[in-house]
Design goal:
By secondary structure, the protein is mainly beta. It is about 10% helix and about 30% strand. Helix 1 links the parallel strand 3 and strand 4. The longest helix has 6 residues.
Length: about 140
């Protein structure tokens, strides 16, 4: 089944999040600035001004002690990371049934939302018609 647009929404404790700061210019980095407390955390929570519409927060998670496969690290779901919704993009053919049948998600309290391209803007919005029913005429 083809799927190239899937978005996962999480409920996360606000204390774990860093508000992204949007800037126009880069900071000058010297050996002295590297000595400041939380320098790298502050650096990772910065983004160029053109992305301000995202209103992004970031959670910086230390990688040591996390399960991994090669260079890919995984933060397990738990009380600090709760899957609350799955947004299925307009070109994704996954169905709610196929999503629920996937392994690895022990919780079933998440919402599944079908998205579509907006008619008059460059936005992705909820498809109020939901998921298409399979066409029995196709072979």
């Amino acid at each position: 089944m083809l799927c190239n647009s899937l978005c996962l929404g999480f409920d996360i404790e606000a204390t774990n999040l860093n508000l992204v700061r949007y800037t126009i210019k880069r900071d000058d980095i010297t050996l002295d600035t590297l000595k400041y407390d939380n320098f790298f955390e502050k650096l990772l929570a910065r983004k160029y001004q053109d992305w301000v519409y995202e209103q992004e927060y970031r959670w910086i998670v230390p990688l040591e002690n996390l399960p991994h496969e090669g260079n890919l690290y995984f933060k397990p779901f738990g009380s600090d990371l709760f899957l609350s919704k799955i947004i299925v993009g307009p070109r994704c053919e996954l169905t709610p049934y196929s999503i629920n049948m996937m392994g690895g998600v022990n919780q079933k309290a998440f919402k599944i939302i079908k998205a579509r391209i907006a008619f008059r803007s460059f936005r992705i919005v909820q498809n109020l018609q939901g998921f298409k029913q399979p066409d029995s005429r196709r072979s």
